Amino acid sequence: MKAGVTWDAAAATHLMSRTNFGGTPKQAEQLAARPLKDIVAAMIDEAKAAPSPKAPAWVREPWVNTERVYPETTPAERMENHRKAGERQTRERNELRCWWLDEMIRTATPLREAMTLFWHGHFTTEAKRMFVAQPLYTQNAALRANALGNFRELLGAVTLDAAMLMYLNMEDSDAKKPNENFARELLELFTVGIGNYAEKDIKEIARALTGWTLDAPEGTKKKPTVADAPRAFCRDGLAPTFAKEKHDGGEKTIFGQTGKFGLKDVLEIVAGHPATAKFIGSKMIAFFGAVDPKNELRDRMATAFTKSKGNLADVLAVLLTSHEFFAAASRATLIKSPVQLLVGSCRLLNLDVTATPSLAQVTAAMGQELFNPPNVKGWPGGRDWISSGTLAVRYHLPEALFDGKEPAGFEPIATDRNFALPADESARRDLLKRLKEFDAKRREERKKDGFKVAFDSAKVFDGPVPEKAGALVDGLLARLTVVAPRADTRATLVEAVDKASPADPVKLACRLILMTPEYQLS
Questions:
Q1: Are 343 and 21 in contact (CB under 8 A)?
Q2: What are phi and psi of 466, to 5 degrees?
Q3: Separation of alpha carbons 517 and 522, rounded Å
Q4: pLDDT tens track for 326-346
Q5: What one-character-per-residue DSSP string does 89-116 give?
Q6: pTM of the entire structure?
Q7: pLDDT digits (tens, 9 = 90+) for 104-154
Q8: Containing H/E element for 469?
Q9: Burial 86-102 (b: 16+ CB within 10 A, else e)
Q10: What is d(CA 181, CA 187) in angstroms, rounded to the nearest whole number?
Q11: Is residue 148 within 8 Å of 119, Cβ to Cβ?
């Protein structure tokens, strides 16, 4: 590390706040006793070696489309199948959010989940446009499996994942009419970034990617569907399949290179482009909150990316051992994402928690619904996490964690409706009425399990609970925050605990700290 950077307990606290959803003072002291380089290497190795979490019980291989429409399917059967499938998919998406939240809260390798969350916001797919839940799981599994591996392999896994093929319309792209949606986002948002490609590159890549679709696994017997059925009613499976007859086999020119390129060639070209190394470095820097005004850190990360041929572990190691990451300007300046705020609270308070749809909805109400980013660009992050609506939920988070109640402003501030209302007034009123009834039913379904969270004061401190209010507050501030509180904040906390003489002073102090501005920072 460069001169002027001190590796101590405060630096270890900073590292854990950005990579581990937080850490305790005891853990910080233990880390500070070892060299930073060794700590980061061990964190990365442990994250890479950790076994994959068990898939949700509803994941099936091969997946079966229960909405398929056959010539003998009656209109009534078609509607009933669609209704049942819709209810099942909604339930499975809710369970998927709970499954991942539970993994983040309980995992022994939080860095892997932090990196999975990073890639989740990079390679986005919106649940509101994905009516099948299983591809959202398989994409999440692919992100986790490759989170600290090789970028080219990660890019390939995501590109051919059913979620991406469906979301950006590549499954129906053929030589006669290449769909440019994925090609455009591949360059703009996933690899080289704006300013490093031309419109011609998008069109040529779209041609090169034609022919890929989703089908049943090879050897599966398929029964023909009706000819005019929409894709949702005739999809045979979720296995990525190359249909050579639909591929444009002609020559393409991409970034000045010419050949009869296909998917493999495209991925090699864009993953190896010099701009990709810088783009990925910049995205990691923003996510982990390092200040890099001269792009010196980005350039060193890009060098590591190029030298290692896209080894993401090497790139992350450069970031997490850099003087920029540990600089004063980088500390306690990152507003916690809703997921980081909730997961970190559960971990730091040692809560006995079971993730339920209600708990998962808390992050949505704060602006980050897992598996459902606002658009293909993902969540902007930073100060955009804060608005009058989301801040209210943040400050009322203790109501969910300590009281099992819905925080004020609990409903998400953005709607997931992605269609226009009818122009006819009567039809519009009828649709709005049905939507209101559907939302009410959905809220009741979500509330069924409520909040399964239990707080135990004895589990918050690593040692004996301090008896005096001042020592109690200071101990909890050291555990829960990464920035020294303002003098008036500490004084108010001490006075509140001292004067209230509550039956559970630890719980009261924790509740108040979670409502402070300081707690919002990582």
A1: yes
A2: -60, 140
A3: 11
A4: 999 999 999 999 999 999 999
A5: HHHHHHHHHHHHHHHHHH-S-HHHHHHH
A6: 0.93
A7: 999 999 999 999 999 999 999 999 888 899 999 999 999 999 999 999 999
A8: helix 469-480
A9: eeebbebbbbbbbbbbb
A10: 10
A11: no
